[in-house]
Structures are given as C-alpha cells and as structure tokens.
Amino acid sequence: MTRLMRDPHFPYLPRDFIETRHGLIFAVVSYQPQDEKVGCFLRYIFEGNIWKKVDTEKANTLLKQSYPQYCYQSKQFEASFHAVSVSDIIKHYRPEERLRSVLQHEPTDEIEQKLHKLIPILVRCGVNCNLLGLTGSMLINQQRKNSDIDLVVYGREAFLQTRQAVQKALAESIIDKLSIALMEDNYNRRAGELSFDEFSWHENRKFNKAAIDGTKFDIGMVCLANELEHD
Predict the structure, then answer these.
(1) How far apart are CA 46 and CA 58, in angstroms?
(2) How does pLDDT run across 18-40, given as a tens digit for each residue?
(3) CA-based nearest residue to 27, from 192, 142, 109
(4) Alpha-carbon distance 94 to 106, whole Å?
(5) Where exactly are the structural domains of the chain?
(6) What does residue 50 show for φ and ψ, rounded to 5 degrees?
(7) Does domain 95-227 have CATH number 3.30.460?
(8) What phi, psi does 64 have (nearest 5°)?
(9) Which tops the pLDDT comparison, 2 or 179?
(10) Residue 1 pLDDT > 70, yes or no?
C-alpha cells in the first residue's frame, strides 16, 4: 500500500510539531524552507514542569520578548509567523509515526481508546491507514479527557477517500454527527460572519468532522510533494 515518503533533505510538513532546546513546541505550517528555516507557529511552552498550550497573542508576545530570532516575516506569503533553524530543533514529532505508535500499544486513556475504535472503522470504509497521522495534543501525548482527535491525511486522493469514509460511517450510524454542543464549540472557535445554522450546514456537508462516543474528531489534508505548485 502507498506510504508517506518525506524529503530526506527537508522532512518537515505542515501539522508536524518541532521542539527546540528552549522548551518550545511549534506546529509546522510551511512545506518548503523559509530562508533555510522551518516555517511554523508556537503552540506549547514548557512551564511549571508541564507543557502548556498558548494562544496566538501570548505566542507572539513571548517570542518578541524572549526569542525574537523566531519571529519571521515571509516575503513569499506576505505574512508574519514563526521560523526555527533546523539546528535549534531537538525533536521532530511526525504524525504518521505517532499514530502507528499509539495503535501498536494498549490505550492509556479514554481518548486513545476512542482512537483505537475510530481507525478500524475508517479503514473498513476504505481509508489507507498508511496515509493517516495524528496531530494536535495527541501528537505530543498531552491530550485530556475533553480533547479532540486531530487526524492528518496525506494527499488529495486519500483526503477525498477519508471524507467519503466519514460520510459512509455516518450513514451507517457507526459514528455520529457533531452534537449541538460540539458544533457550538467549533463555531465559537472559528467565529465568522455566518450564523450558527449556516455554519452548521456548511460544516456538515464537508464530512471532515464527526464524533465518536461523544468526542469530536476532524481530518485535515497535507499535500504530497507532487501535488504542490512550485514557483
């Protein structure tokens, strides 16, 4: 079966995490190097002997004050984000490896139990597990009881197949549509111009989010190398 192949010269992909020697974990956001650095955004800091998630405002403030070398202005994207030199990276968290690791062992908590139940459902509905990964809090083993399951799908074709699998599993009532409470949480996080009803309608027709035993899961696509447009 098809497996994800990473570029050995630059193995970093969006939705990976990278950890620096300063006790910072960044989520990778770019496919190519940014001035020979990894384009990313600060997501977790090691504080009080635990990893703490930080929002955008706190992330920017912390880096400007304490680690200005990680603040980055991209000319290519005309946007500000963060960038880390490869030499500063002490650990590279890869979603596909983390998913395999979790599935190879007995679940250690309720969220992992639900993941162990979800993946076989998706596979039975036509998903290639070798093109799936696990990101978000579960990528660094920082999930809590109310955490979401954040899946990565590598490649456009695999992403379409996974959405079709979610649609099929929903039709067979093996998994559930998002409850009003889960949809409201999703709506509040994304707070746009749409009304809640409009937002719910659009979200439900994408088949990239659903629930398993009361826990929300979502799927996000990462392009393969041959799917990227190069300038």
Answers:
(1) 14
(2) 999 999 999 999 999 999 999 99
(3) 142
(4) 20
(5) 17-93, 95-227
(6) -140, 160
(7) yes
(8) -60, -40
(9) 179
(10) no
